[in-house]
Automatic annotation (TrEMBL):
Keyword line: Antiport, Cell membrane, Glycoprotein, Membrane, Transmembrane, Transmembrane helix, Transport
Species in which this protein is naturally found: Denticeps clupeoides (denticle herring)
Function: Choline transporter.
GO annotation terms (biological process): choline transport
Stretches that traverse the bilayer: 6-24, 31-53, 234-254, 261-280, 314-335, 355-379, 456-483, 504-526, 566-589, 601-624, 644-666
Keyword Glycoprotein: yes
Membrane-related topology note: Multi-pass membrane protein
Primary location recorded for the protein, binned into one broad class: membrane
Subcellular location(s) per record: Apical cell membrane; Cell membrane; Membrane
The protein's name: Choline transporter-like protein
């Protein structure tokens, strides 16, 4: 009857009275749950406001000098921005930069269909009397308001007023901006001279003005080639990821049978490596036994090989290795029982995963939720950053022409109605886009809203991770506390655990996630302050900052450890976060040696598994995509790949993420079963009233057994 009650009571297993457990199971940490819901509602309101006031086109599409977007609307057939005088972008640190706020180059910018592909500069003959502008300028590189066929302006007037570009060079579209193509700049003709500079000086000035953006290579060309590689090899990349998934799954399932062999092989492998190191050091010491060179003779040097010629160096290495080897042997002798327990729990975890295969794919749910959080944060941040109407101001593009002292850079204007004749003494006056309006209640609080966006994002991310951990813990705990396995395992344990967690423990998960979020916010602030202090070169401040960063990094790791075990206890008992965290911590402290042994043995096995999956699939991908593995003719040709390392890197990174997802479930299973095992030892004594729920293998290792009811035969 007791076992049936335990099975029915899927909300809380290892208790003395399962009926009372059902009655007292209730929502935990309600205040934090309400606070989390309010934050989510506020987060949605922020997103709505950002969507109403933001305009992501300000980031996705470039603007011309009049503030119109290129690539959409009236300029849908003109996706690129062409700079009349790209050299002025290099001098944007002068007084003009103050007016332009660093957002625009102080030159006319025009939406064009295609970026120029050749060199051209206004020839000297264009300044001769009677020269017609349409014979020298191209209409596509002139402002739309100027018609070269009907204009009465001379070539000099058009050039001085910057109505047409008086030179251009081969450029390539980079993020919608026509920037110089460095591959063709060195082929400039000798007559390509601008502003009194010769051709070499002109090219050097152009490179200086745009070098930070292009960094010496054509981004679009590389991107297109990489895309072509993915388009021709995506089926084989997918096959590599499928192989990684199958190898990960097979490894976890085989741990049920080979865990003991792997653990002992790895342990004795470490001892063998240590023994080989001792022998090698002794051999080198014996070889240099007749040498008279000492440390005093060598002194201090950065050449480490010089110390290897001293016999005392190898003697020191040998002594250190002997001490380490002795410690490992003593640890192995005295902790052999605990190692056997760790192996038994690992084997039991593999068995639990084999009974609940759906848990291996639950990280996909967590991944989708994390992707939703990241996408919402990114979109909200983008809309917040692009909130506000565009601001246009009167700017003198060439202050040396005429008297432009009346233009201070503060006069606002309308690009549609602006007329340069209003400034007769400054012919280069233009109405140009400067930045986005930062006035108004909403705009003045954009920074605060961005901070709210970051804080809510971190809280949501940590909550999603906590939800995944608690759900898996509930599913695996239902396996452990099933007295007769697999018959007593609840139906759909993963789904039941997920629903149960959302129904009762959202507040507790939000509480733990909030604590972790606060620590992460402090770490972000410290990183920001460290960036500021680094420029000041204050050794004392940097030392203090380094200590603080280290302390809070350790604190974050500790809180993650506490939260993880607290979520397991919440899944088992259904108590609030603080009580669960305290009980989990005290339980682990009472069994600290077992915790350390299990943690290290599990880490060793999972590291070996990741190395096997990532290394094996990575090597296979290298031999395949480099063309060293023959494939049927016509199916795939590695020689046609532009960058064969891109598919290899993709397969390696994807394999690691797949292995990490599978092994994270397994690690959670080990931690959950271990806590259940410790609770089982403390709560039960093997009597009929309090039987052990652990496997027979664990009871055999601990020399324990369950007593049979009277009258029941063995």
């Amino acid at each position: 009857m007791l076992y049936n009650l335990l099975l029915i009571n899927s909300f809380c297993w290892p208790v003395f009275n399962p009926t009372l457990c059902v009655l007292f199971r209730s929502c935990t940490d309600i205040i934090c749950c309400i606070l989390f819901m309010l934050v989510l509602v506020g987060y949605m309101i922020v997103g709505i406001l950002a969507w109403l006031y933001g305009d992501p086109r300000q980031v996705l599409y470039p603007r011309n000098s009049t503030g119109m977007f290129c690539g959409i609307g009236p300029n849908s057939d003109k996706p690129n921005v062409f700079y009349f005088d790209i050299l002025k972008c290099a001098t944007a640190t002068n007084i003009m930069a103050a007016a332009l706020n660093g957002l625009q180059c102080p030159t006319v910018q025009l939406c064009v269909n295609q970026c120029p592909s050749d060199f051209w500069v206004l020839p000297v003959t264009a300044y001769l009397p009677g020269a017609l502008p349409q014979n020298f300028f191209k209409q596509e590189y002139c402002v739309p308001s100027l018609n070269l066929s009907t204009t009465a302006l001379t070539v000099s007037q058009i050039k001085d007023k910057e109505l047409c570009s008086y030179f251009y060079m081969p450029t390539a579209p980079v993020l919608g901006r026509c920037l110089p193509n460095f591959n063709n700049l060195n082929n400039a003709p000798s007559n390509f001279t601008i502003g009194g500079m010769n051709a070499n000086q002109t090219i050097s000035a152009i490179k200086n003005s745009t070098g930070d953006v292009l960094s010496g290579f054509n981004i679009k060309d590389i991107g297109v080639r990489i895309f072509e590689d993915f388009a021709s090899s995506w089926q084989w990349i997918l096959l590599g990821l499928v192989i990684a998934m199958l190898v990960s799954l097979l490894f976890l399932l085989l741990l049920r049978f080979i865990a003991a062999i792997l653990v002992w092989v790895l342990i004795f492998g470490v001892l063998a490596v240590g023994g080989f190191g001792i022998w090698y050091c002794w051999n080198e010491y014996n070889t240099l036994k007749g040498s008279t060179v000492t440390f005093q003779d060598v002194g201090f040097t950065t050449n480490f090989n010089a110390y290897l010629q001293i016999k005392d160096t190898w003697l020191a290495f040998m002594i250190i290795l002997c001490i380490v080897e002795g410690i490992l042997l003593l640890t192995l002798i005295f902790l052999r029982t605990r190692i056997l327990i760790a192996i038994a729990i690992i084997r039991e975890s593999s068995k639990a995963v084999s009974y609940m295969m759906s848990t291996l794919f639950f990280p996909l749910v967590t991944f989708v939720l994390l992707l939703v959080c990241v996408s919402y944060w990114g979109i909200t941040a983008l809309y917040l950053a692009t909130s506000g109407a565009p601001v246009f101001k009167v700017v003198a593009l060439n202050a040396s022409q005429g008297d432009c002292s009346g233009i201070t850079g503060n006069q606002t204007c309308d690009p549609v109605t602006f007329n340069s004749s209003s400034y007769p003494t400054c012919p280069s006056a233009r109405c140009m886009f400067i930045n986005y309006n930062a006035e108004g209640l909403y705009q003045r609080n954009l920074f605060n809203l961005q901070i709210y966006n970051v804080v809510a994002f971190l809280w949501c991310i940590n909550f999603v991770i906590a939800l995944g951990q608690c759900t898996l813990a509930g599913a695996f705990a239902s396996y452990y506390w099933a007295f007769s396995k697999p018959g007593d395992i609840p139906t759909f344990p993963l789904s039941q655990s997920f629903i149960r967690t959302l129904r009762y423990h959202v507040g507790s998960l939000a509480f733990g996630a909030l604590i972790l979020t606060l620590v992460q916010i402090v770490r972000i602030i410290l990183e920001y302050l460290d960036h500021k202090f680094r420029a000041a070169q204050n050794p004392c401040a940097r030392f203090v900052m380094c200590c603080l960063k280290c302390c809070f990094w350790c604190l974050e790791k500790f809180i993650k450890f506490i939260n993880r075990n607290a979520y397991i206890m919440i899944a088992i008992y259904g108590k609030n976060f603080c009580v669960s965290a305290k009980n989990a911590f005290m339980l682990l402290m009472r069994n600290i040696v077992r915790v350390v042994v299990l943690d290290k043995v599990t880490d060793l096995l999972l590291f070996f598994g990741k190395l096997l999956v990532v290394g094996g699939v990575g090597v296979l991908a290298f031999y395949f995509f480099s063309g060293k593995i023959p494939v049927p003719s016509g199916s795939f040709q590695a020689s046609k790949l532009n960058y064969y390392w891109m598919p290899i890197i993709t397969v390696i990174v994807g394999s690691y993420l797949i292995a990490q997802g599978f092994f994270s479930v397994y690690s959670m299973c080990v931690d959950t079963l271990f806590l259940c095992f410790l609770e089982d030892l403390e709560r039960h004594d093997g009597s009929v009233e309090k039987p052990y729920f652990m496997s027979k293998n664990l009871m055999k290792i601990l020399h324990k057994k369950n007593k049979k009811p009277k009258g029941q035969k063995d």
